[in-house]
Amino acid sequence: MGVLLIKCPNTGREFATGIQVDADTLSRVPQELTHTHCPYCKVEHSWLPREAKLVDAIPPGDWIENQNRR
């Protein structure tokens, strides 16, 4: 099981969508637009599942919750 990341088109920074999925399930998901609020630019981005990156874990330094502490 992993988490999907997408890239903010305004800042170029990746962020977690909050969607947890495994690679097999992700390969069967219909390619329909999904919308996720960006924690960096505060805009809702539209994206297709094939544009997302599946990662096993996100380093704590990359958590948006920890970005505000810098």
Descriptors for this entry?
70 residues; mainly beta; three-stranded antiparallel beta sheet; 5 strands
List the helices and strands and how they pair.
Layout: E1 2-7, E2 14-21, H1 23-28, E3 34-37, E4 44-47, E5 53-55, H2 64-67
Antiparallel strand pairs: 1-2, 1-5, 3-4
Q: What's the β-strand tally?
A: 5
In what range is the share of β-strand residues?
A: 35-45%
Across the major sheet, the strand order is 2-1-5
**SS-derived structural category:** mainly beta
Tell me the number of helical segments per DSSP (H or I, 4 or more residues long): 2
Radius of gyration: 12 Å
Secondary-structure element pattern, one letter each: EEHEEEH
The residue ranges in which pLDDT falls below 50 over 5 or more consecutive positions are none
Give the CA-CA distance, first to last residue: 29 Å
Shape: flat
Question: What's the short story on this structure?
Answer:
The chain is mainly β.
